[in-house]
Design brief:
The chain is mostly helical. The chain is built from ten helices and two strands, in the order ααααααααααββ. A hairpin with a 2-residue loop joins β1 (254-261) and β2 (264-271). The longest helix has 30 residues, at 2-31.
Length: 273
């Protein structure tokens, strides 16, 4: 019965997260503000030209990330054995809860709740940041999904070797690289951390929770360590890019607020100059 209830909860959250995404996207389409879908498309176009923008100041961090990922790749097998050897029933229970933080529906639901909370509390920063988190999630997962299809790496639970690749394959057992859950978690975390960079705790909490997702994917034998490393790098890079691009633009010129009075219901729109 508990398992059935758990499945029902997951389905409800999935439907809720999808509904929230469509709701906020529809609102943005109507009022011309903060559309996470069109924003994500623009981000993808910008990110596609990223290699051409690599210069002497950025090449070293990029090379460092690639080098660290390759080093981790060389230890994938050993890390997997350590994770499997240290599994316990208690950690298994925690793992089942932590993985939700990387579930796309939960991430959209969290960002959607943040946008709604910011709107109701007249917190424009929280509202805008939450829309950016949706945007980052969509852009990062679009890139990650292409990577999964092109690379076609076998997941560890198949007991294939770490260097088994089946390019242009979308079977679940062949979509290990990069980790989608990790990409999702870090793409959202990076936005909240970047938007609230003037304070230590938002970034620490956001990245801490995303880090738990990364560890969970290795612990649950769903991904190799290098999969989650590059998933984290991808999600963080996209999230930071989304925030940087948003900061370089003018604030949203239009805001919308419903108004109610006895015998009347309507809305008021304000424009910033």
């Amino acid at each position: 019965m508990a398992h059935v209830r758990h499945d029902h909860i997951n389905k409800a959250v999935t439907l809720g997260g999808t509904a929230l995404l469509f709701f906020f996207t529809s609102c943005a389409a109507v009022f011309g503000i903060n559309n996470p879908v069109t924003g994500a498309v623009g981000d993808l176009g910008y990110l596609a030209g990223a290699p051409a923008r690599i210069n002497s100041s950025s090449i070293y961090p990029v090379a460092g990330i690639i080098g660290a990922g390759l080093l981790l790749y060389s230890f994938d097998g050993q890390i997997r054995r350590i994770a499997l050897k240290n599994r316990t029933s208690g950690l298994d229970g925690v793992s089942k809860q932590v993985v939700k933080l990387g579930n796309g529906a939960y991430d959209i639901a969290i960002a959607g709740a943040g946008a709604l909370g910011g709107y109701l509390a007249s917190d424009q920063k929280l509202e805008d940041t939450s829309f950016l988190a949706m945007e980052s999630f969509l852009a990062a997962n679009a890139i990650g999904t292409v990577g999964k299809y092109v690379v076609g790496r076998s997941r560890p639970y198949t007991n294939d070797r770490k260097n088994m690749f089946h390019p242009f394959n979308m079977k679940t057992a062949r979509t290990s690289f990069p980790s989608g859950h990790t990409t999702s978690a870090f793409s959202v975390a990076a936005v909240y951390a970047g938007a609230y960079s003037d304070s230590f705790w938002p970034g620490a909490v956001a990245y801490g929770l995303a880090g738990l997702v990364a560890f969970q994917r290795v612990y649950a034998d769903k991904h190799w360590a290098s999969d989650v490393f590059f998933g984290a790098a991808l999600g963080t890079a996209v999230g930071r890019t989304v925030v940087a691009r948003a900061k370089s633009k003018r604030p949203a010129a239009i805001s919308f607020m419903p108004i109610y009075a006895p015998g009347y219901a309507g809305a008021i729109a304000t424009r910033r100059f």
